């Protein structure tokens, strides 16, 4: 909607001419139309809560054990390829850290 900035603005006298009844009626109209009845149980069905019982679920992916050329980072506990082993850390000190965690 275009605004005409050259049009005269309302003065204090013009603001006083608005009746309180009009303002109250306008306020009740907007509040009654904005309230919506939502069943909380229906809204919560799409969400899964942490700690939910997933004992009936099955894995859809094939899980492979760690391979010879992989290591488990002692910081993030992810299995990474040996090429991602941080050069400053070696297996002699017992700390296998990936490049991402070393930065």
Overview of the structural elements:
This protein is mostly helical and 103 residues long. It has a domain at 70-102. 28% of the residues lie in helices and 6% in strands. A two-stranded antiparallel sheet has the order 1-2. The longest helix is centred in the first third of the chain and has 15 residues, at 20-34. The radius of gyration is 33 Å and the shape is elongated. The two termini are 53 Å apart. The model has no long low-confidence stretch (mean pLDDT 76).
Write a brief caption for the model.
This protein is mainly α and 103 residues long. It has a domain at 70-102. The chain has helices at residues 12-16, 20-34, 40-44, 99-102, and strands at 70-72, 79-81.
Proportion of strand residues: 5-15%
Major sheet description:
2 strands, antiparallel
Summed up, the helix count is 4
| Overall strand count | 2
N-C termini distance? 53 Å
Label this structure with key terms.
single chain, 103 residues, mainly alpha, two-stranded antiparallel sheet, 2 strands, 6% strand, elongated
Write the layout of secondary structure elements.
Elements lengths: L11 H5 L3 H15 L5 H5 L25 E3 L6 E3 L17 H4 L1
